[in-house]
Amino acid sequence: MTHLCLADLERAARDALPGEIWDFLAGGSGAEVSLAANRAAFERIFLVPRMLRDLTGSTTEVEILGGRAALPVAVAPVAYQRLFHPEGELAAARAARDAGVPYTICSLSSVPLEEIAAVGGTPWFQLYWLRDEKRCLELVRRAEDAGCAAIVFTVDVPWMGRRLRDMRNGFALPAHVTAANFDAGVAAHRRAEGISAVADHTAREFAAATWESVDAVRAHTDLPLVLKGILAVEDARRAAGAGAAGIVVSNHGGRQLDGAVPGIEVLGEIAAAVSGSCEVLLDGGIRGGGDILKAAALGASAVLVGQPAMWGLAAAGQNGVREVLDLLAVELRNAMGLAGCTSVPAARGLGTRISGYG
Question: Based on the structure, what is the number of domains in the chain?
């Protein structure tokens, strides 16, 4: 079947996955207000295109965290990707490599980080703060030794939000899917009514990150440090002052605090507040190339794409993830040209308007 947009791959993935695994991928926390708001916020933003411009030499290539990428896109960290396809993270990382975009290895990957990094391309490593600080910093060292190009420190998960779909399903990892980067014991596999075993496991393992945690990670590595999960202007300024090379404006896809503002709604003021002192990326709600252009117009240097990449993985493995990235490339080039932009940085000169529709 020909997939003409990401929604086509979303439908294919939903058909391919068991119901409780689809819920684990697609669900949000609480009443899923923030999950829905992420898309609604994008749909309220309209661009003001410019006309009569020479589009010769247009390019989607960008520099992200000191490296070149074919698109202003990185594959976001997503846990336990062998839930969605037997090759899991290896298939997704190969697709990102071949598409010329960074791939973010999750701390909770179901394949050891060294094996994923060995795929090549531009691997980044995503870090959660653990109760065992020594083991946490060992993960940073392993990532650096494996050739990762950045540390993406997720700061909005002291514990998992109440994801009611998983709780109603009594969701637990199947035996063949494990937290491959450390010994998770049996907690994530223990099924019980009304309990998410994955959330139970993370409650045992995770701790609340603080600015002292950021300092500890910063002192432990020479890699660029990116803080993921920033929504407040004050936190963005402090992150830049603490030496972060970048921040990811994100409400964790609506999976942590239900009612947290969509990242796209605060992106512009955050980008203005840090004023080039660190890179600003956006995560959450990206469903097409036009969304990437909107994010760029509001000041993002790149976006992270998580769920759509996993739709591709579930639908067709490595080829499916590559198809997602190729569709984003086609849509972004189309949107840029129709808006009168020859480069992603040029999009920052586009006007935006907020509509009551959507």
Answer: 1
